[in-house]
């Protein structure tokens, strides 16, 4: 069997950059299905803003019938809902692309999961009213700074089409795992958008604006866009829904094991639908077997855990691979959809193991 982690040793975040702070979850050492805030991955474009909830107000303006300024107390008094869901950075696994791409070289830990509590965005928009002709809802964060491609100062802002903004599970969250959202994850208010990559879940909300056109901010039309061609911008697509994906958590890549029976464990997730099957290959993809899904009853927005018992009875080197299939019959591809900025990597996961 694989060696257990010594009880006195605790995992920590894996640093990718310090300014701005970008750190990934040690996903290979996560056993539960909720992530402690201290181990939740951190993705930033700029420095952290300094905010307090005592003097916090949320403006909603633009193409609305009655512009409003909501106090925190007003927001807390609106009926809330709690949603358990995956938040995955669209650059998760970027470091695995071949040919290599520029950007934070995330491995497999730019993904975390937990319980978010807040009020539906639609409840706030119903209180302001939406004018006829409204097309998108722009959410602006308090984080700001200069981009590498411009001397201009920008805040991090993203838009949602009206139907996604009005989805009953798109919420303005104020708690994570039954505690106020930590500063580094969006305190005091964070947008939570199920099914989409986490760039849509804007942190440290400064204001919400309803517009009658397509938002043209740089984090909408320059970043978080699939550029499938190296030399031009033909056939670009916006980054939205999370791709079907899986990750092997144990054993570790390049781990040396003894002959015997070993459990291969991991997680799998998707944007739309649910995971219905996870397959494992221990011979580099020549043959595949079904893994056991250990928590199929989970909700629509969560990852599932899976396990596979492997009789490793012969010494040698092995390539272990996994692929997940969701309820829309989407399966992880053998090769990822290469794109210039390195978004949405979801090729079959693989590790190499040596049996001695």
Automatic annotation (TrEMBL):
Domain Oxidoreductase molybdopterin-binding as annotated: residue spans: 45-218
Names of required cofactors: Mo-molybdopterin
Keywords annotated in UniProt: Metal-binding, Molybdenum, Oxidoreductase
Keyword Magnesium: no
Domain Moybdenum cofactor oxidoreductase dimerisation stretches: 240-355
Pfam families: Mo-co_dimer, Oxidored_molyb
Stored InterPro entries: Ig_E-set, MoCF_OxRdtse_dimer, Mopterin_OxRdtase_euk, OxRdtase_Mopterin-bd_dom, OxRdtase_Mopterin-bd_sf
Protein name per the record: DMSO/TMAO reductase YedYZ molybdopterin-dependent catalytic subunit
Source species of the chain: Neobacillus ginsengisoli
């Amino acid at each position: 069997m694989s060696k257990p982690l010594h009880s006195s040793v605790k995992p920590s975040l894996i640093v990718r950059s310090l300014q701005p702070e970008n750190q990934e979850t040690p996903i290979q050492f996560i056993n539960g299905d909720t992530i402690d805030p201290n181990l939740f991955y951190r993705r930033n474009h700029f420095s952290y803003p300094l905010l307090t909830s005592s003097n916090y107000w949320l403006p909603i303006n633009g193409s609305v019938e009655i512009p409003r300024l909501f106090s925190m107390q007003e927001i807390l008094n609106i009926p809330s809902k709690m949603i358990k869901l995956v938040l995955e950075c669209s650059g998760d696994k970027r470091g695995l692309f071949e040919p290599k791409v520029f950007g934070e070289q995330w491995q497999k830990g730019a993904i975390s999961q937990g319980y978010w509590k807040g009020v539906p965005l639609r409840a706030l928009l119903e209180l302001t009213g939406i004018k006829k002709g409204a097309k998108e809802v722009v959410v602006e964060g308090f984080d700001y700074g200069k981009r590498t491609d411009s001397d201009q100062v920008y805040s991090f802002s993203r838009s949602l089409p009206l139907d996604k903004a009005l989805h009953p599970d798109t919420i303005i969250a104020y708690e994570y795992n039954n505690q106020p959202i930590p500063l580094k994850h969006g305190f005091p208010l964070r947008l939570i958008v199920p099914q989409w990559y986490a760039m849509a879940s804007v942190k440290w909300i400064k204001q919400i604006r309803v517009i009658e056109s397509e938002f043209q901010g740089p984090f909408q039309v320059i970043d978080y866009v699939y550029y499938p061609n190296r030399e031009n911008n033909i056939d670009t697509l916006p980054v939205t829904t999370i791709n079907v994906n899986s990750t092997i958590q144990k054993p570790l890549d390049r781990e040396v094991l003894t002959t015997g029976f070993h459990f291969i464990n991991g997680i799998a997730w998707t944007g739309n639908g649910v995971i219905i099957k996870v397959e494992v290959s221990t011979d580099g993809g020549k043959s595949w077997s079904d893994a056991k899904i250990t928590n199929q009853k989970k909700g629509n927005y969560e990852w599932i855990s899976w396990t596979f018992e492997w009789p490793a009875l012969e010494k040698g080197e092995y390539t272990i691979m996994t692929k997940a299939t969701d309820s829309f019959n989407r399966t992880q591809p053998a090769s990822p959809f290469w794109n210039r900025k390195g978004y949405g990597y979801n090729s079959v996961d693989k590790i190499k193991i040596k049996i001695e």
